[in-house]
Design goal:
Elements (H helix, E strand, L loop, with lengths): L2 E19 L2 E15 L4 E7 L4 H15 L7 H14 L7 H23 L3 H4 L7 E3 L9 H13 L4 E5 L4 H15 L4 E5 L6 H11 L4 E5 L7 H10 L3 E4 L6 H9 L5 E4 L1 H4 L2 H13 L3 E4 L6 H11 L21 E3 L8 E3 L9 E2 L1 H18 L1
Parallel strand pairs: 5-6, 6-7, 7-8, 8-9, 9-10
Antiparallel strand pairs: 1-2, 2-3, 4-12, 11-13
Helix pairs in contact: 1-2, 2-3, 5-6, 7-8, 9-11
The protein binds magnesium ion.
Magnesium ion binds next to loops.
């Protein structure tokens, strides 16, 4: 089986409501759909997040695609190495192990999808098999105000989510109000986690974590600048609350450094950081050796990434039970089946061949149109 063609399609799926986090407001999932076509008529699908823009990602993928054409998708690891070399090493830059993950993730997951379709096996089976039957996700309430966040948190807790996770770093007073109202809304038994997205200095983090302790917070994710392991280690050393590394860890080397420095109690990790499924597992195994759990990380993505993360998460003994889920933010998804809505805060491990999903042609057309309209609007 040979790869004959790789196509890329920019998509924009709008969010139901604006997504508030420490760095601003996001109104939809902008992605680039990657389709790997083979000479026996199979099509593997994946997606890249379109950051900083869809044309930027497509330019890299065009170069990567030329490397893959004529080759077997079962050379995935070797192909990814060659793509990284061509895109980021051959001309002497050698400086983008992290950004390369974002660029190549969609292509890597599409290769896994086509390998699964060719063999009639789910991706998790190709990886050695599932060690669980379902994955637990946290409830991720949104809102412009603390009350709106708390109202959604109440609904999610009632729907069966054991962990409620919310964004902070929006200003100390608002952050504390969100935590207070969410705790009041969900009661004493749910675990609360929060993410300031690097907004706090070590001193500010120490102050906020002391104040937040009143609300029985289970974990705080990447409170300090992600370029400094020392800052996170300093916060963790004094913190009454467990600390997760998020943007600190993209590569296996990052994971090793965080574990060696004892900078985090947990690592939050996404496919768009690791460059897809194979390197995700490398990072997870390093964390496992250090006795640290991995949480699935979400970005501005569609159900394609949700299912790819579900496939790799199925295989990890050290997967946490508070994983990030982003589909509820989408006004509609481009995945037609299976139904990716959470049941009691969970999704089963997907069993179909490859990633185990079928895309919705009408939704794809709407999302492609949404991207074009956005480009026209922004000139
Ligand atoms: Mg985070």
């Amino acid at each position: 089986m040979k790869i004959t063609r790789i196509t890329t399609t920019p998509l924009l799926v709008p969010y139901k409501k604006p997504y508030h986090w420490a760095k601003g407001i996001i109104r939809g999932a902008g992605v680039v759909l990657v389709e790997v076509h083979t000479d026996d008529g199979l099509v593997g699908i994946g997606e890249c997040v379109a950051t900083p823009s869809a044309p930027a990602i497509e330019a890299y993928l065009n170069v990567a695609g030329d490397i893959c054409i004529g080759r077997s998708p079962f050379e995935n690891t070797r192909l990814m190495g060659e793509c990284y070399h061509a895109l980021f090493q051959a001309l002497g830059t050698c400086s983008a192990p992290r950004y390369s993950g974002q660029v190549l993730a969609g292509l890597e997951m599409a290769l896994w999808d086509v390998m699964g379709k060719a063999t009639g096996r789910a991706v998790h089976e190709l990886l050695g098999g599932a060690v669980r039957d379902e994955i637990h996700y946290f409830g991720f309430p949104q809102g412009a105000t603390a009350q709106e966040v708390a109202d959604e948190a109440r609904e999610m807790a009632a729907a069966g989510c054991d962990v409620i996770y919310f964004k902070v770093g929006r200003g100390d007073a608002l952050d504390l109000e969100i935590a207070r109202l969410v705790r009041a809304a969900v009661g004493p038994d749910k675990r609360l986690r929060m993410d300031p997205n690097e907004s706090w200095s070590p001193v500010r983090a120490a102050r906020m974590l002391r104040k937040m302790s009143e609300f029985d917070i289970d974990m705080v994710e990447q409170p300090t600048n992600a370029e400094s392991i020392a800052a996170l280690a300093q916060v963790r050393d004094r913190s009454p609350i467990a600390i997760a590394a998020d943007q600190l860890v993209f590569t296996p080397q990052d994971a090793y450094d965080v574990c060696r420095e004892k900078a985090a109690d947990m690592i939050t990790l996404g496919l768009h950081e690791t460059g897809g499924i194979a390197r995700f597992r490398k990072v997870a195994h390093i964390a496992e050796a250090a006795g640290i759990d991995i949480c699935l990380h979400g970005l501005y993505e569609t159900g394609i990434t949700t299912t790819a993360a579900n496939q790799v998460g199925a295989t990890l003994p050290n997967l946490d039970d508070g994983n990030q889920y982003m589909n509820h933010l989408l006004e509609w998804d481009i995945v037609k089946s299976p139904d990716l809505r959470l049941q009691e805060g969970r999704l089963p491990i997907l069993r179909g061949p490859g990633l185990g999903i079928e895309l919705d042609a009408d939704a794809l057309a709407r999302a492609a149109e949404g991207h074009i309209k956005e480009v026209e609007k922004n000139g």
